[in-house]
Amino acid sequence: MTRADDPAEIAALRPQVEEAPELAAELLGRFRTHPPVRGVTVTELLDPRAAYWRSVHPVPATAEEESRLREGQQLHERLGRYLVPARAREVRVRRNGVVGRIDVLDDRPVELKSTATPPKPDDDLRTSRPSYLEQLAMYGALTEHAEGRLIVVGSGEVAPNSVRVWDVGFGRLDRIEAEMTLRASALREARERHDPMGLPRCAWFERGCSYRAAGVCGCVGSEPPLPTTILDEVGPPKGNPAEADRIGSWLATATSDAGSFARFRELAYPRRAFFDERRDPAGASEPSKFGTPGDETWSALQAVLEGGPPGELEFRHADSGEPAEAVAVFRNEPCLVKSTRSLRPVPADRVVAERPHYLLELGLRCAALGTTSGYLFTGLERVPSDGPWIHAQRVRFESGEVLRSLLERRERDLTASRISGNPASLPACPRWMYDGCPHRDVCGCAADAGGPGS
Ligand code: SF4
Q1: Closest ligand 1 atom, CA of 272?
Q2: Structure confidence at residue 290 (pLDDT)
Q3: What pLDDT, on the 0 to 100 scale, is given for residue 105?
Q4: SS3 state of residue 111
Q5: Is 411 found in the same domain as 326?
Q6: Containing structural domain, residue 350
Q7: Domain boundary at 204, 239, 256, which?
Q8: How far apart are alpha carbons 329 and 339 in whole angstroms?
Q9: 428 lines ligand 1 (CB under 6 A)
Q10: pLDDT for 280
Q11: Is 2 part of a structural domain of the chain?
């Protein structure tokens, strides 16, 4: 069985990797003179105490939680495609150190939710779903929109595909933003102190908080509640049954398209994507770590790149809309940001042999945007922050046609496997993915001669 990052296949792309020491020095200088504020996400601001525990002592999601999450992601993906073109989906916005990834940003921010227990049309969302409203209001503040839309779709067996839509107006956006800044600062300080003292009480304190259940969190329930400052600026949600009917009718007839892809990683590691999509939660042996968010070093490097002059780092989509994921573009070229436990960076002439997957992931992004060169940034986790922890390389692929045919081949093979239900033609994942993979019992890659992923 070939591997997805087979060095021979990567070498056939004829990548030329060059060190970019001046660029690395420039970024290090930026880091030292204007230390970036670590980005805090809007979802973290909805429940800062849980966000604190998630970062200092993560509790792996159960297989059932993962299954729910995946179902929600798939629904977001399908519905997003129906509602707007790729450029308006999953829009990343960063302002004053707060980062939002907005499901849909067109003439207003739109938040999509899927839940097995959707609120009733006459529910008071302020009490039944305050976090939905807060999240939408924060997106309004981040993008300076005075109105947003909330779309809630029923999932699971209880209310499949039932749709409710509310239009929501916001009051003083500056007050919402000020409260976001306060919550973000409190969370950053708690992380620096390694102490959640002062963070508001967790919304899930008495509703099955996983950190409490795991004995991680020492909360007692007397912590101060989350301030209502943001909710105070949210106007009464107005039901929009016409939009709900329109979406509901589409969902009732829409079928999923085997030839659409949400993320580049599906094409980089198609065998893993194949099994992730089909995974039976009851049969899953361990939680997945595929696609977990980056660590401190990765986040710091990302913040350095985002902290440059306006337009230096942008997010662009492929004209074809496939994959739907936006590509980070640094100085007009796709870039890939990685972090590593290695003490030393992999030199340019060893990248094909030692980090072929970096070139694979970057090459797919270049192919999607129709370009042949990009940047590879690596953060060295074990190098102190006053040392040379940022490494930059420039990559040029010889032929756009060869890159394009790799992308199309991966798309074609994964589509065919999804339709046939047979992953036989899909390459095994890189060897390093095998240990943490929940599909080892069913995938068959380890049964192949030469061991996992060989
Ligand atoms: S068992 Fe191996 S090839 Fe199969 S999905 Fe997991 S890592 Fe990939």
Answers
A1: 5
A2: 42
A3: 95
A4: strand
A5: yes
A6: 7-34+286-441
A7: 256
A8: 18
A9: yes
A10: 55
A11: no
Could you tell me if 242 and 362 lie in one domain?
Answer: no
| 152: CATH | 3.90.320
N-to-C CA span, the chain: 6
Which of 265, 289, 434 is the best mutation target for the ligand 1 pocket, counting ligand atoms within 8 Å of the beta carbon and taking the most? 434
Q: Tell me how crowded residue 393 is: count the other CB atoms within 10 A of its CB.
A: 24
Asked if 67 and 13 sit in the same domain, the reply is no
Same domain, 321 and 176: no
Closest CA to 203 of 221, 229, 187, 216: 221
Q: Would you say residue 276 lies in a domain?
A: no
Amino acid letter at 364? Answer: L
Burial of 421 (0-12, 13-18, 19+ CB in 10 A): exposed
Pocket residue to mutate for ligand 1, from 5, 437, 442, 448, most atoms within 8 A of Cβ = 437
Is 294 found in the same domain as 181? no
Give the count of alpha carbons within 13 A of 129, CB side only.
24
- pLDDT tens for 322-360 read 998 999 999 999 999 999 988 899 999 999 999 999 999
| Alpha carbon separation from 374 to 331, 336, 445 (Å, rounded) | 9, 8, 32
Domain boundary among 205, 238, 256: 256
Number of domains in the chain: 2
CA 388 to ligand 1 centroid distance, Å: 35
In this structure, are residues 165 and 240 in contact, taking their beta carbons and an 8 Å threshold?
yes
Same domain, 50 and 169: yes
- How many angstroms separate the Cα of 217 from the Cα of each of 49, 209, 213, 429? 9, 9, 8, 36
Distance 72 CA to ligand 1 centre (A): 23
pLDDT in the model for residue 447: 52
- Looking at the domain assignment, is residue 268 inside a domain? no
Ligand 1 within 6 A of 196 CB? Answer: no
Mark whether 19 and 52 lie in a shared domain.
no
Inside any domain, residue 446: no
Task: Please confirm whether the linkage preceding 323 is cis (ω < 30° from 0).
Answer: yes
Q: Is residue 28 located within the same domain as residue 45?
A: no
Q: Give the C-alpha separation, 154 to 166, whole Å.
A: 15
- Which stretches in the chain have pLDDT values below 70? 157-160, 279-294, 446-454
Provide the whole-model pTM: 0.80
Phi, psi of 105 (to 5 degrees): -130, 100
Q: Which residues have CB under 8 Å from 108's CB, separation 6+?
A: 140, 145, 147, 148, 149
Residue nearest atom 7 in ligand 1 by C-alpha distance? 434
